[in-house]
Amino acid sequence: MATIEKIAFFGLGHMGGPMAANLVAAGFEVTAFDLSAAAVQQAVANGCKRGESAQQTVEGADVVILMLPSGDAVKGLYLGARGILQALDTDVLVIDSSTIAAGDARQLIAAAGDRGIRAIDAPVSGGTAAAAAGTLSFMCGGEAAAVESAKPYLQAMGANIFHAGAAGSGQVAKICNNMLLAIHMIGTAEALQLGVDNGLDPTVLSDIMRASSGGNWSLEKYNPYPGVMEGVPASRNYEGGFSVALMLKDLGLAMDTAAGSASSTPLGALAKNLYQLHGGDTANAALDFSSIQNLFRRPAGD
Ligand code: NAD
Predict the structure, then answer these.
(1) Cα–Cα dist 26/155, whole Å
(2) Same-domain check for residues 99 and 246
(3) In this structure, are 158 and 97 located in the same domain?
(4) 3-state secondary structure of 4
(5) pTM of the full predicted structure?
(6) In angstroms, rounded to a whole number, what is the distance separating the alpha carbons of residues 261 and 247?
(7) What is the pLDDT of residues 174-202, one digit of tens each?
(8) CA-closest residue to ligand 1 atom 31
(9) Catalytic residue, candidates 49, 75, 151, 174
(10) 127 has a pLDDT exceeding 90
(11) Is residue 49 annotated as part of the catalytic site, yes or no?
């Protein structure tokens, strides 16, 4: 059986850069393309081949991986007369790891299917640290056989690979998870502030709630109150991590999905509003999403 090993990788940003580097480290030949010359330069330094154009990047590729900022970016690159889909051989496997609307993912997978090309959606959870460490979680949507054939590549970049269901299901799983993450992060920040405003030490309160029925991932791994936990964004002025802007993007996708299925998501809607209030258009947009704690904290001396 022939070994598939030539990968065309598009989108070498915070996530895609280290993901492409991990594919190189696993022994794949990776040709990398990005609109940013600096991003391509870094990828070349990490052992990737330079893609001179989108079309040239996919020449001879066995697998195409996309890690782009939005559905429009993916569709612009992929579809249309000059899109890369037209340039792919029919035995190519396409893995889109960008977080985009489930409807866009279905459209792209159907367009690939019309040409006889296998494609899956495979958005990730884990952030930049997991991208660098090769421990991302992939949530895949598409045919089981296509997901199975994507595993050797996904395993080079991640630790957990889930098959969520049919085309677009990976995107649905991703926004369900991130909507819940936003909700419990906000609830955690609100509860911590209530305790602090009433004289409790946030570390003591965190210990109590973690061991009680309020325990959750935000308390366990990502405490939003400064000084409670080492190594998390709250202890470095909310720098790094998963930005408010990206959380707002995912909450927007969650609300669009809910509208499409007439689902009630009142807490998701409120979470989106609170993140918008906190930092949609301000410098806070670049901060880690646990900075929502600042929405509840009182000015010093108050
Ligand atoms: P980023 O903005 O750092 O990188 C995106 C890259 O894509 C940029 O380098 C940009 O120049 C490039 N790009 C845009 N259009 C392009 C095109 N047509 N052709 C080639 N390159 C193009 O974004 P990121 O943080 O790496 O996120 C990528 C995706 O992963 C997004 O969909 C995001 O929602 C998702 N995601 C991000 C995180 C995170 O913590 N950053 C976590 C999970 C999922």
Answers:
(1) 9
(2) no
(3) yes
(4) coil
(5) 0.94
(6) 21
(7) 999 999 999 999 999 999 999 999 999 99
(8) 69
(9) 174
(10) no
(11) no
Backbone angle region of 140, left / alpha / beta, with phi > 0 → left and psi within -120 to 50 → alpha: beta
279 within domain boundaries: yes
As for ligand 1, residues whose beta carbon falls within 6 Å of it are 10-16, 33-36, 39, 67-69, 73, 76-77, 98-99, 124, 127-128, 242, 246, 249
236: which residues sit within 8 A by CB, 6+ positions away? none
Give pLDDT tens digits for 11-51.
999 999 999 999 999 999 999 999 999 999 999 999 999 99
What DSSP element (H or E) covers 296? helix 293-296
Residue 61 lies in a domain: yes
In CATH, what number is assigned to the domain containing residue 57? 3.40.50.720
CA distance linking residue 178 with residue 251, whole number of Å: 7
Domain that holds residue 131: 6-166
pLDDT at 255 over 80: yes
The CATH number of the domain where 214 resides is what? 1.10.1040.10
CA-to-CA distance for 167 and 107, rounded, in angstroms? 9
Q: What span, in angstroms and rounded, lies between the C-alpha atoms of 192 and 294?
A: 11
98, 131, 166 - which closes a domain: 166
Kindly report the number of other CB atoms within 10 A of residue 27's CB atom: 9
- pLDDT per residue over 146-163, tens digit each? 999 999 999 999 999 999
Same domain, yes or no, for 73 and 128? yes
